[in-house]
User: What shape does this take?
Amino acid sequence: MPLYDRSKLNDLLREINGSSPFPALLLFGERSLCQQAAEQISAALCVQGGTVHAIDGDSEDHSTTLAKLRSFSLLGGRQVFRVNGSRLFLSKNVAESIWKKAVKAWEEGNQDKAAKQLRAMLAAAGLDSADDPGSLSNEQWKKCFGFAKPAGNLNWTASLLEQMEVAKSGLSPGDAGELLLAALESGLPKNNTLLLLAEEVDKRKKLYKAFSAKFAVLDLSVDTGSSSQAKKEQEAVLREQIDKVLKDLGKTLDKGVMEQLLERVGFHPSAAMMETEKLALSVGNAPRITLDDLNRMVGRTREEAVFELTEAVGNLNLDKALLIAGRLQENGIHGLAVLATLRNFTRSLLLFRALQEQEQYRYRPGIAPNVFQEQCLPLLKANPRWQSELSGHPFAVYMKFKTASAFSLPQLRKWLQLLLAADRRLKGSPVLADTVVQHLLLSMMIR
Assistant: This one.
């Protein structure tokens, strides 16, 4: 059987409509793209009638799924068993990729998603879904997951898993994969079809090779890197999603609106579709969506943009800082508010840089996150004067110190002088606010 990519989805749908359906299909890659494709495939499979049974792969009992697949249904039409987030194709070879997703979700405050990724990583390593990965030694971690244990305090993994309900399954993913392959090779009831969705797969696994050779595999993965080729691929996916929504709702975009929408949404296909639909509905009967419509409905939140601005300044990324500062002002944030953000950020850097100069806190450049938390942070927090500044997750505090270490005290004091001069210009001169802000950023970041 051929392997399909997202450009060949229509070919796969035609094959499903034109011949006997596949007994099993695997869709893997970007989550929202898999879900969209699964909807289309399910509709094609059930065009003559049928039922789609949704199964959560995070809590799936593999024995029950296998029993249903082998059984003849009393319901009429095709029976599609759709497993969302299947773990059958995981192995420790993809554990590092899953771990990065778990950390990202945790840092964004999405505990449910972080817990699901953690349990997927445990399943990939053949561990119980209630095991705490953070308690493993460096050697155990490397053996289980195939990559070095990250530095820093990982106590959050235990607390996160304790808060989430853990499902128990009678079969491990490895055993379930072997039994599933045996069931598929021996033949399922004619009207039963298995549809598996997965974000990560190990293509070296026997089950994956069997699916690619005997059944159907649809690759919907997208390079999420930062290279020019990856960015080009991401943009192509987003444009395709947005164009589809616009076509369905009979709308078009004014020149330049697409680029602005892509910049504001970022690579989140489902968010791009929802924001486009929101835009299309907001203009009523108007056939075109203008930049004013976009600014009214899809402006960045101040919190998101402010965080991105300070991050760009901390990284001395002048181009990005100028772009974000401009976006803030376009969205109605006054230049004085932008200055206030930069002033608070600079004062924070100045504080953390000054604390690094005091030997009693034991900070040194290049210190590991776990050492910082165990040795430096208790000493820092012993001074009640800095309680609010040192609040938050220990790793976030560590990153603030790390950012501050890239600047000298004279440089940060100079930034405060530049901020004061910019403040006076905004309050007492006819110069446009965006010009003042641009001049400030140039003065701060060009050495």
Notes: The radius of gyration is 27 Å.
